[in-house]
Amino acid sequence: MRKYILKRILISLVILVFVAFIIYLLMRCLPTSYLEQVARAKSMQPGSKSFEEWMEQLAATYGMDQGIIPGFISWCGRAVRGEFGDSWLWTVPVTEKFADSVWISFTMGAIAFFFEIIIAIPLGIIAATKQYTKVDYIITIVALACFSFPTFFFASLLKLVFSVHLHWFDLGGLIGRNYEQLSAMGQLLDKANHLVMPIVTLVVISIGSLMRYTRTNMLEVLNADYIRTARAKGLSENRVIYHHAFRNTLIPLVTMLGGSLPGLFAGALITETLFSIQGIGFVSYQSMRSGDIPFAMFYLVFMAILTLLGNLISDILYAVVDPRVRIA
Questions:
Q1: Model confidence, pTM
Q2: Are 250 and 321 in contact (CB under 8 A)?
Q3: Residue 83 forms part of a structural domain
Q4: What CATH number is given to the structural domain containing 175?
Q5: Residue 234 maps to a domain
Q6: Would 23 be classed as within a structural domain?
Q7: Which residues constitute the domain of residue 158?
Q8: If we measure between CA atoms, which residue out of 294, 222, 225, 221 comes closest to residue 75?
Q9: What is the pLDDT of residue 197?
Q10: Residue 251 forms part of a structural domain
Q11: Structural domain count, the chain
Q12: Which residues contact 267 (CB under 8 A, 6 or more apart)?
């Protein structure tokens, strides 16, 4: 296992270098006039650097005055040291803006991911074990409704009911009007109150597909020959389902859940925009739309790292959930 993990990490590093090179190459293919236009626009912002300073930083950070290969090597050297330059849009260091926005998105994504698992997987198993019953039909209808809801529609519906009519939550934002006057615990509860509707939105629009996916895989496993054999031996139905069948159902689920790691840090653009939360999804979209090359490069490379890490975790978990999978 150690050799396998080490081998996969080395392969992932090679892939990451190629992905970073492609991102860098795309950036270098931008016309010089565009770079000068953006640098000039940023220099005109209040308290910003001059045009010459922006262009000098760009050349120094990304090796614009060098060839593509030497420039990429120079950028990699700075990236290893954590030097990604200043954001053109937010006029602060890239890593500082990223740290300010990513954790709120991660908190929302992690909580929503937790509830998605504890709700969708058990309901999918129940639907499979009670196939063609009323329970199965109800769960199927709920699942279809959940992943058929457009995000903007469901979020707007929540705001209409719980904010406009019931006045339980604010329409948007991360903090309330009296946030500064609250105690530390009060400030924490205030933020939690503002995250309820965004998290509910993320959970509802995501559990439908996982419910259907779990049900489909569970039905396939329950029809296998070894399940019939286990029942013929007189094993209890609970042991057949939760010890034999569910363990094998986890195999395809591991692939799906392992690939969800980048999503925890990618943010939810539509949800964050609708609820006026400046998470990493909203910030990265605004950065790319405005041509913020330093932030865009850092964000894309970061997402590539998470994608490779998610695939590595999925492969390792195969051997954990399935005793038939062994690595020589």
A1: 0.80
A2: yes
A3: no
A4: 1.10.3720.10
A5: yes
A6: no
A7: 101-294
A8: 294
A9: 93
A10: yes
A11: 1
A12: 101, 102, 105, 109, 279, 280, 281, 282, 283, 284
Bigger pLDDT: 108 vs 314: 108
The per-residue pLDDT for range 186-230, each reduced to its tens digit, is: 888 988 999 999 999 999 998 998 899 899 989 988 888 888 888
Taking the C-alpha atoms of residue 270 and residue 205, their distance in angstroms, rounded to an integer, is 12
- Segment 53-108, tens digit of pLDDT: 877 777 776 667 678 888 888 888 888 888 888 887 787 889 999 998 888 988 99
What's the chain look like in SS3? CHHHHHHHHHHHHHHHHHHHHHHHHHHHCCCHHHHHHHHHHHHCCCCCCCHHHHHHHHHHHHCCCCCHHHHHHHHHHHHHCCCCCECCCCCCEHHHHHHHHHHHHHHHHHHHHHHHHHHHHHHHHHHHHCCCCHHHHHHHHHHHHHHHCCHHHHHHHHHHHHHHHCCCCCCCCCCCCCHHHCCHHHHHHHHHHHHHHHHHHHHHHHHHHHHHHHHHHHHHHHCCHHHHHHHHCCCCHHHHHHHHHHHHHHHHHHHHHHCCHHHHHHCCHHHHHHCCCCCHHHHHHHHHHCCCHHHHHHHHHHHHHHHHHHHHHHHHHHHHHCCCCCCC
